[in-house]
Amino acid sequence: MFLSPLTDQMPAALLHNLKHNLVLHERTVFVCVLIESVPRVPQEDRVEVQALGRSFFRVFVRYGFMEDPDLPAALAVCAAQGLALDPQQVSYFLSRETILPTANGSGMALWRERLFEFLFRNASSAANYFRLPPARVVEMGSRVML
Prior knowledge:
Elements: E1 2-3, H1 12-21, E2 28-36, E3 47-53, E4 56-64, H2 71-75, E5 92-100, H3 110-121, H4 126-129, E6 137-145
Parallel strand pairs: 1-2, 2-4, 5-6
Antiparallel strand pairs: 3-4
């Protein structure tokens, strides 16, 4: 499973995985979590599975702004929509960026870059936020200059 906030682009983690590991998995699932502008999303509207062909799937998971996301629990209902998942076989691939201040000062003021870097580094991880099992998470990273 490749998590991505973008609904119309390939997740960065998939590109990194292809580039570095030279592997495309037998079944690939793109997961997009959407936070709706309502307090709660009914269970019957929570998960939508789209078959993209050739063992590729896109899954939309919707939560209300007052709900705490639990992605493994939400994905358990995918079987009813034609995507059976074994929780012990699922690997969650996440993109992780490391923010670096620019060396030549061509971007923001250096103190702002360092403040942004500090806040970004100390933010909660997506794996914790979505309650992903730690042993099933793979983070593919890149370094981004501000």
